[in-house]
Amino acid sequence: MSKVYETVIGLEVHVELATKTKIFCGCSTAFGGAPNTHTCPVCTGMPGSLPVLNKGVVEKAVAVGLATNCTITQNCKFDRKNYFYPDNPQNYQISQLYYPICRNGKVEIEVEGKKKFVRIHEIHMEEDAGKLVHDPYTDSSLVDFNRSGVPLIEIVSEPDMRSAEEVIAYLEKLRLIIQYLGASDCKLNEGSMRADVNLSVREVGAEEFGTRTETKNLNSFKAIAHAIENERERQIDLIEAGEKVVQETRRWDDTKEYSYPMRSKEDAQDYRYFPDPDLVPVQISDEWMEEIRSRQPEFRDEKKIRYKEEYDIPDYDIDIITNTKKMADLFEETIALGANPKKVSNWLMGETMRLMKEHSIDADELSFSAEHLAKLIQMVDAKAINSNVAKEVFEKIFTDDIEPESYVKEHGLATVNDEGALRKVVEEVIANNPKAIEDFRGGKEKALGALVGQTMKAMKGKADPASVNQMLRELLK
């Protein structure tokens, strides 16, 4: 009888915090920029330079800790993690080992209708390293210190996950919490959220953990899921062949969908941690902590409950709208300007989602204002424009955030409400389409649609289809 194996997974998630300046100096944290332009003596590790802690980093770390049900370490401090690597200018990284800022948290995830908690061992603050750029033409490596000193939090989970699906659910939950807080944009493709996967397998029912490996270089949910499945199968194959799993760090190659060993954990170097002598301990008073707590937003789970109670929209719409803070904010701001929730939802779920797909952009990149969407809905309600014109105008709102009223006026798109002019066109359409009139009077409802279409064409789309339909029926009685 073949053995059944269980996968045991824990994650180390690095998140770049969305502060304007670095953790220990005033250099910009903006993504991109020419190499080594966002640098100074502190973040390039020049002798005699001294770090000064960015208060915003502490506040964002505490906010994430509170939102993930952690205990906040109100007296915490920084430590030096000593190692040599070309992108590490000081030959040490300022991190937290002994007194991390947050401990013993948990978040709830749901997979296939089943809920469970994933425990968080700790969250600590640290600085990012620089970036090595390998040039194959000159067979050399160049170093860019723009990222050096960018503030990070590392969220270390307990080994509570048992499948790739649970890992993705956990990461999505973390990402949403952090995005709702405004603590980070969590863009995996830009490296502002990165995950290392610690994975082992054991026979179902066994109490002892198997030997774990750590897989690095994972920058998308797809890569994480594939790396987990790949590593699980690799370890099971080794065990079935009577071989041992080696405790090591592995690097995932997303193109080849293959992982290879980087270094053994057996001879991992001693980082010789000791308290950083240049930084004073961080003291977080009860008052400061409560002030941070008071600024916590309404998170997705709470929004979903409230939307269901307050707005008459389907659960599917609620799921999509609350899945990003940007979309939820847009929805609520448009309603606050007097628009009907169901109509706002329809515009977001319909035209907005269609155009996002067409332009290959995420919800976070939406740039149009709630004011202009609310105005558009108001114009449709007032029959100032018809639904086809509204879609045309919305495309311009979506791409250029134009003011809809001015745009409609400039381009002559307003609905013609002159009943006399409309009656004249309808009468001409009736006179020119005897076959359609005969079909309609013979009980073929579709014939009326053709007549409405002819009228709209003659009116260059500037009529209200409902009014055209009504007038045709009256005149054909």
Automatic annotation (TrEMBL):
GO terms for molecular function: ATP binding; glutaminyl-tRNA synthase (glutamine-hydrolyzing) activity; transferase activity. Residues 329-476 form the Asn/Gln amidotransferase domain. Signal peptide: none annotated. InterPro entries: Asn/Gln-tRNA_amidoTrfase_suB/E, Asn/Gln-tRNA_Trfase_suB/E_cat, Asn/Gln_amidotransferase, Asn/Gln_tRNA_amidoTrase-B-like, GatB, GatB_C_1, GatB_Yqey_C_2, Gln-tRNA_amidoTrfase_suB_CS. Pfam families: GatB_N, GatB_Yqey. Gene3D superfamilies: 1.10.10.410, GatB domain, N-terminal subdomain. It catalyses: L-aspartyl-tRNA(Asn) + L-glutamine + ATP + H2O = L-asparaginyl-tRNA(Asn) + L-glutamate + ADP + phosphate + 2 H(+); L-glutamyl-tRNA(Gln) + L-glutamine + ATP + H2O = L-glutaminyl-tRNA(Gln) + L-glutamate + ADP + phosphate + H(+). Keywords: ATP-binding, Ligase, Nucleotide-binding, Protein biosynthesis, Transferase. HAMAP family: GatB. Allows the formation of correctly charged Asn-tRNA(Asn) or Gln-tRNA(Gln) through the transamidation of misacylated Asp-tRNA(Asn) or Glu-tRNA(Gln) in organisms which lack either or both of asparaginyl-tRNA or glutaminyl-tRNA synthetases. The reaction takes place in the presence of glutamine and ATP through an activated phospho-Asp-tRNA(Asn) or phospho-Glu-tRNA(Gln). Belongs to the GatB/GatE family. GatB subfamily. Heterotrimer of A, B and C subunits. This is Aspartyl/glutamyl-tRNA(Asn/Gln) amidotransferase subunit B. It comes from Coprococcus hominis.
